[in-house]
Amino acid sequence: MLKTPICEMLGIQYPVFQGGMAWIADGRLAAAVSNGGGLGIVAAGNAPADVVREEIRTAKSLTDKPFGVNIMLMSPFADEIAELVCEEKVAVVTTGAGNPSKYMKAWKEAGIHVIPVVPSVAMAKLMTRLGASAVIAEGGESGGHVGELTTMVLVPLVCDATDLPVIAAGGIADGRGVAAAFMLGACGVQVGTRFLSAKECSIHPTYKDRILHATDLCTTVTGKRLGHPVRSLRTQFARDYTKAEFGGMPDDELEQLGVGALRKAVKEGDMEKGCFLAGQAAAFVKKEQPAAEIVRELIEGAEPVLKGACKWVK
Question: Which residues make Cβ contacts (< 8 Å) with residue 189, sequence separation at least 6?
Fold first, then answer.
């Protein structure tokens, strides 16, 4: 089985991170991924500290393996969650939607491995200077908040810019994607959309069904006008939002249009007003299965691809 330096650093069996998907990545899913040999992640999203604490403790009750917490830095509760992960002695913190600089010192003093998501070389260099343990280079193919660069371009650029271990994210849902990430210089992968099909993932059945029947052109990006683009499935909500975004709706009204939309998708399966976050790799997801089986398939699928790579070179 594939082993990389990130496995030894974090005490995990396989170099596979589960994405920190807000409203989706709860303690049960994180524990299932960690028990399967990967690194499960509890997503803090916009939740207050008491809710996140409950999910952390759920994960602790279900696994004795390392797991992490993803902190969305745009959250109004980010300061509280930053303190909470220290109190709960979480092994790993991943961050997104912002710059975690002001929290880095406290996290490092608490013995936490800090692994920020970076959408650019400049951010990767900054996180390196601040003492991050690794970085996650996430391409625009991913679901949720996205940057401009693709995984194919971003990962090797970040690998060239830092000596830290680099985790590749965006567009990875099978062994071929894992192998490609390693060939680009990464030493691990972060996978989100594929885990939406996990049996332990508690999203609404309508959401899961949409993922299982996704096609190559099933996603779209909205929110560029506001400066925080998001990739999701093409639904009535996405069409309405796009129309409003390019139809001149004031920014404050446009912001309000998206409030609560992810919850409506995750909890209610609302096809009219719900925002169903998903990456382009949704087209690869064809079956519901245990999270541990997904982790194993990712690694087992990568090995023959890597071993057979030489056959293409004469």
Answer: 15, 16, 17, 167, 168, 169, 172, 177, 178, 181, 298
Q: For residues 33 and 177, state if they share a domain.
A: yes
Amino acid code (one letter) for 163:
D
Compute how many other C-beta atoms are within 10 angstroms of the C-beta atom of residue 197: 21
Asked if residue 183 and residue 249 are part of one domain, the reply reads no
Residue 249 CA, chain-centre distance (Å), reads 30
In a domain, 90, yes or no: yes
> In the chain, how many H helices and how many E strands?
13, 11
* Identity of the residue numbered 24: I
Q: How many domains does the chain have?
A: 2
Whether the predicted pLDDT of 63 surpasses 60: yes
User: Which residues form the domain of 224?
Assistant: 219-277
Express each pLDDT in 121-176 by its tens digit: 999 999 999 999 999 999 999 999 888 899 999 999 999 999 999 999 999 999 99
Tokens for 50?
Answer: 């008491």
In angstroms, the CA 144 to CA 275 distance is 10
d(CA 241, CA 249): 10
Do 98 and 156 lie in a common domain?
yes
User: Which backbone phi and psi does 142 adopt, to 5 degrees?
Assistant: -75, 165
The token pair that represents 301 in the structure block: 């699928």
Residue 246 is encoded by which pair of tokens?
A: 């390019």
148/66 same-domain check: yes
pTM of the predicted structure, to 2 decimals: 0.93
Amino acid at 196: L
DSSP conformation class of 196: G
Residue 211 lies in a domain: no
Tell which residue, 198, 175, 204, 170, has the closest CA to residue 279.
Answer: 170
From the number of C-beta atoms within 10 Å of its C-beta (0-12, 13-18, 19+), residue 249 rates as middle
